[in-house]
Fold these 4 entries.
Entry 1:
Amino acid sequence: MSEFTLQVKARGQAGKDLYTMRKQGSIPAVMYGHGTEPQMLWVQYMDFSKLYAKAGESSIVEIIPETGKKVNVIVQDVQVDPLSGRFSHTDFFQVRMDEKLEAHVPLEFVGEAPAVREMGGILLKPIEEILVSCLPKDLPHTLSVDLSSLKTFEDHIQIKDMKIPAGVEILIEMDTTVALVEAPRTEAEIAALDEKVEGDVTKVEGVEKEGVVAPDEAIDTEKKGGNKEEKKAPAVKA
């Protein structure tokens, strides 16, 4: 049994009562996968919000419908309304427990880098997640990155330095850097950067847009005959 479960209800025709159901605290969803017909569903907003905060898109979720058997899925393609910031739609991809799947697993950065704490460096995280392949039972919710090995500005952590759980295959290059510490900028470097930005702004303000004719030039062109009518050919007498 999965650690995460979610109650769902069947949804009728696409778009029917969509506004009403959202006002009542539900969001539309669709479940698909393994050649099955897509199923349109309703999910309680608060239930899904709590689930997504814990399960994300890298955990097996057990869908519990009103009728029929339970289904194992992973959450995919969650849509958020740009104005309200609320979830507006989600997909559920049906998985088979005896078949490998691919998923993006987020990185969890733990500990503190000595190069940050003692030397004032800046922690950089080039990537935030890793694509993996595994059986659903082996799918990790997160992959841990221990920052304590970053003692100097020359140190870096690559995927091959991480502890990868058994049964999990990494689908990107093992020498991919996941964390490093950059030396803090000196006051001279910051001042030089500010001067460069100011200089670039000045150049942009002084550049004329190509292909744009000033109003006075356009009027002058018309006076010189720029908009003259075409001469008609003389009529030919029969």
Entry 2:
Amino acid sequence: MKLAFPSVIFRYQKDFTLLTDLDSSLRLSEPSRQLIAQVALDKNYLILQATKPISSISGTLDYTISIARGLWLKLLYGYLALACLCLVLAAIAYKYQALQNLAAIVYSKLPSQLAFSSESRAFDRRILALCAVVFLVGFGLRWWYMGQKVDLHGDEVWSVAITSHSNACLWGGACEDGVYYGKEIKERELWHSKDASSALKDIANLYLTNNGDSHSHANLYYTILRLWHIGVRTGDIEWIIQRGVGLNFLLFYPLAFLFAFLLGSRLFGNSVLVPVFLALALCNGASISATMLIREYALQECLFLGFGWAMARYFCSELESRRAIILSALLIACFLLSGYFVVLYVGMLFALLWFLSLGESPKKAKLLLAMLGLAVVFTYMLYPIYHKGFVGGHATSALARVGGSDTSLLESMRVYGQILGQNIFTPLVLLALLVAAFAWYRGLGSSVYKRYLHSKEAFFALLLGGLAVVFGAVIMFVAPWKILRFVVGCLPLVSLLIVVATAPLLLQGGILARVVVVMLGASLLLYHQVGYLRYPHYADFRSEPIYQMEPILDKERENDKEIPTIYSHSSDYGATRAIIYFNDLRLYHFIKDPREALKSLAACEQCYFITALPMEAVRKGLGDGFSVELTQATFGLYRYYVQKREI
């Protein structure tokens, strides 16, 4: 029997695992009721070889019916969304003149002067020196923490498996039976080829299909990661950490700093506000944590800043040149390819800027639409199946959680508040804001207040930061998991709010200004928590929920090389917490069929058994002649120590 599902709708990993594990347990506990002889994957087809007529297994396949119903609902929602968009566009076209008049009224109420337009664009050497110090501090912190990273998150392992097109136990394939040394299986599953031709094939596959991950992620980060690893063939975890984090450290961090510097100089001119913004944006624990994670979030943080700079140039200047519009559109396309959730931020900012531009100059508003249209064209040129991310994967998870029983707005905002309080609005930062408010109340900095806070730059900085806060709140609510990574990219823009709030006092100078600077610097040092470095102990992993670092299978047991290890599991996410920590010099027996695995176990005096089967099924399959001890459990996988009883 061959069941076909649209690959962009049906995320097969989870459901295949559930089906396979259910049937495997059934085989061992009640062999007479075995319904499915084999489950296999062929592209977007699920192939079942049944031992009984289809009517006998209809109950086992109930989930396929719900998927079919869900597909109809998704199509209906899609058509409704398209119809609503057409109605909105028609209303705008019909009431264009009235909308333009309203925009002109709103725009006339906003600041129109540039605070730093008359200043020289040449930077004060002292300001440049401070910026250089901030860069070196951020560079040094990332270098030090990179040396502290010892474990890989399961998603980081998937980054490598997807990028290298491994198609085996870790991603999108099947575990083939065989006996492998740990070093051999890790190289096969991870960076398995160092040829340039193989890298080009992998990149072509990412361009066309994203190696089966098109439902959740775009291809930009994977493509850059594959180019970064041309010539590399390894399964060594330490080397993978150094190379993977090194990409974030040596490429994305300098680019993020450059974009932040350009954005800061555009909004804050040649002033002390620029290094303050750089420090708050890129030296906090969240930003460093993003660098430590071998995923797309350091790239996304970099492009959040790049997008902000491109829009600041547009809003705070006269009409852009054709070349500037093309380059900005390309930058926006890269930003869209850094993650599907950023579409919300792009949409919010573009809608507001288009409305305000309509009040300033209709021609400028048309140029903004042209920039957006060109960005969409560039996006599809770089990734032709970009739209698939909106009908599956995280998009489906997000829609399912909105209004669902497992979604709590209060809990989402609590976690979001924890992230902001831990990384941006720390107690010392809040105290610094109180000092700035006191200074403003007493009239200190009043000479700067009207000059800067009543300017286009200050308004745009507040707009960027305010939308970043709203974006983070919405994403935290709809995200599949309430964790740091989904909102870490927007946090540098949130820090703009702090800079604007303290700007009058800092620009005025004096003792209170120095006190505020010391408070902000001390905040970065004292409230400095970096994640994604290692898995905590099982009892403690809940203490770091915003990083979602679950335990792995104990690496120390891998040193018992004289004890055989049988691995019986299909391709699944749980394998990311086991295979990459195998001992290089140890033999591992890969046996997919649990019945065959139990036969091999019965032939051993003692053995480790890694599987997804529950202990009851293993004990029942082996009989009373063996003792079965659960040594560790993690994310759907169990490690048992099996020993033959003495008679």
Entry 3:
Amino acid sequence: MSDNKMPTSSESGQAREQEQKLEAQAATASSDAAPGGHNDATTTADAQQPAPFNQTKLGIVTVTVGLSVLVVFLANMVYLFGSSFGQPHRNHVFKIAAVNYDVDDSLVWNAVTQAYGVLHSDSFASFVFLPKSDYPDPDDLIHAVREQGYWGAVYNNQGASSRLSSAIDGQSPTYNASQALTYVWNEIRYPATSASVIRSGILQLQAAATKTFQAGATARLLRAANSNSTNFQTALAAYLTPFTASEVNINPAPQAEKAFYNTVVMAMSIIQQNVFLIAFTTVSRQLGLFSGQRRFKTSATWALFVGLAFTLLGSLVTTGYIWAFREDWAVTGAQFAITWMVLWLVQHTYYQLLDGTLALVPIQFFSFILVTFIFINISATVFPLESMPGFYRWGHALPAYQSFQVLLNVWSKGSHKLYEALPVLFTWWVVSASYAAVGTMKKVKDGRKGGGAGAPAGAAPAGI
């Protein structure tokens, strides 16, 4: 018989219990040694839980946000409406040059000056009667209007008085009333104002001058009738229509879309930058453009390149739809190219300003700044600044106003105040470039702190 004994069933059970105790102790020790252990897992789970619903707090926040939005829009609309408040009573700020190229005691010019004395008021454009020596030739006067020295001009053609006198006295077989007066205006320069104040004012003056002339020429017409002149029909026609003003329109713009150039186009130039930047900023952060793995130089170069490329195409699109709907507006290819470049400059300025603001300003306040920026720029272009209350003259410093002035010069082939507009625009570009660079530095810094792609636009970086 062998000396080895088989373990009994009770001994086997005790061995298994001992092994289970050892495994449990090892598992407990391993759990205690792990960083954070069970407590960290619990903390992470708790952190992912949404905050408890607080109806009172939500109501207060909702009311505060709603009131803030309404106040911002109210303030901006008040600012916009205030720019045109009482404007008809300031029509006298629009200057129209008046020059007599006929004899000093001109029958036609005397009627014009007397009629203006009746019409003169704050709600009527101011006619500035100038000596012929200031503008020796009508072309000089036209050039003055082109260069925006005056909003318009009216002048008496040489020989107009003698032709009218001869016709009204029955001494001339023919008479052409359109050879008496000529008026000059620029339709593309603030089209609504030019049509309703400048051109309309000149035509009102002509109509009043006609009545003034007729009141003083009735006796001469009767003498012509009593003389049994064979030219009485001509005399009667000259009496009824002594003069009609011939038109010189520096830049005819028959298209109705011209009303959008200083309004909708100016606003869209800002809005399209915002729409692109919201998308680009989000995507670029997600793809790590501003992460800690990138140098600032790389991120800034990419941001600058994207901004230049997008605004180059965006300004081309803007110029394209202006030209596509120009109808019979006579503009050239060279004017198209210059318009494109002007819009590129101002749109890239807007792009950089909004880019910097998106990086430096909390996202919940960004829309307030955007709306206000749009409104103050549109308020500076929708009507001429000289017709607004004095407070609004600060609009000379805004990029939208100066860019529209440059565009007016491009379309009218003038050079009025480019010495003011171009430095202002380039100053805005330099300032916006510096501002955007600071914003890029902020995005790169946030990306390094957050690790990886960086924090979302307008949000605090991770770990802060």
Entry 4:
Amino acid sequence: MKKTKFTKEKLRDVLLVSCLALLLVFAVWKIFYTPSSASRFSAGNAGTSAAATEAASEKEKSLAAFLSEMDGVGTAEVRICEDENGVMSVAVVCDGAKNILVNSNIREAVSAALGVDEKNVKIYPKSR
């Protein structure tokens, strides 16, 4: 039987494979075993008071009325997603969403009114 020598190259290869395996385990753990943002969001809002919910509803109604006054928007519905840091995202459903200029105007108006980044404003056309 031949005795194989444990060389520096073999040691390096073993350490490299071990590190890669450890990195893979960490990545899988991070992806599959951390709570999703949706569950964190719903858990964070579980204790929301009725007054805060009512205030958010008023904000949505006010913004929907504001958007409906804009040229080409038509009737609008608004949903605002908030967390403890403020507004996270906004969804708007309106008649004029298919028009690119109207869509851009809505995005700018919502961004300015709520102080949210334009990339967090989603606009969808109403179904007929």
